[in-house]
Amino acid sequence: MFENRFAHFLSYGATDQRTVRELAGDYNGLLVPGTVAAFQREGTGGFVLTLSATTEGPQYAIDPRFPLFQQALTRPKRSHVALAELLGVPELVRPTDPSPADFTDDIIETVARNWATFNGDYQAAAGSKFEKYARRLGQDVRPHDAKAPSYVMPPYLVAGPPPDPWWDVSQRLYEATSNALNDDGRCVRVIAARNVGALAPLTLAVSENRAAIWVSGLEELTRPASDLTEYALAIRESKQRNLQVFALYGGFFSIMLQNLGLSGSSHGIGYGEYRNWIELPESGPPPARYYLPHLHRYVQADEAARLYFTDRRLAECECAECNGEPPVGLDYHALMRHSVRCRAREIAEWRDLGTPEMVERLGREWAAFLAILHGSDLPEVAIARYERLGSHMSTWATALENTAP
Question: Kind of pairing, strands 210-215 and 29-33?
């Protein structure tokens, strides 16, 4: 999260194993959801630990996803129950909204102790699955080569600015987990802000020199420039106070914040560039969408194909997955790999640009896209739709310009 120029992490899901395995080297690390790690303990552990045992094994950490228990769970999933049981507090799964007062000292100590133990013993989680995943990797890896989590993320809660009592609970969870780990240096605080305005005050309330950050519902494609500027300035101010921050969720806009101090970001494969803290009742694998490099966003595959067949310059990609083929020529797994390869390429191409250069390049890319679009034979209604799909480009440029001193 903090050792690379801009760390590129992927959020792991059970359907992502093939992509994660085949693209080792195109990303720096994995974030494993605590619900998945608890419910699929041997399967997920076997896969992650086998991967960690390779020479190029990525870093990894387990995200406790603890805000899950900050809400009523009227239809809990089995993974919710598994995580609560792993933490030693099954009563966290409840049909009514909890209050900060429900997190007593006993509950906090139990959660922290069990979470620290789970992370400390994670190398033993593979069980009989290690050999299975070692065969799939096709490499001679041994269980004793498996690595422990690179970082331990203590349980955390979503909070507003201090003195929000939920922030107090988060503070106590962090301190208890750090103590349970004997302050071994791997503990990374998570600052989970209820909204953009809460991020800067929360970062001011910590004394550590690194933290993971998450603003609930910060969707880069739809937020106004003012929100994105406020987010960017909070990151810059953190850097000025020698606080390194890593974004638990981020899309292309997060890449452009590296000059302001963001040390990296994470995203799901094919989705997951932002997250609302309220747990959705249903979930599943991401839809088969196409990452459109020219607009730095996902679109439906048929929309990308229409652009491609109208004028290849609007949607072509030369990554190893596409190799000049149309978007509809990619199967589901190829679409997923394409998205990761695009993000890795974006990080490499934009890392050496200053903020003014980023603003200029965004404007140049958007102008070139519009010129081709308006010169095509697409009907006006289709042109208007694609203009709306790219309206974030101008918003992003404005947000970055507004960070100028």
Answer: unpaired
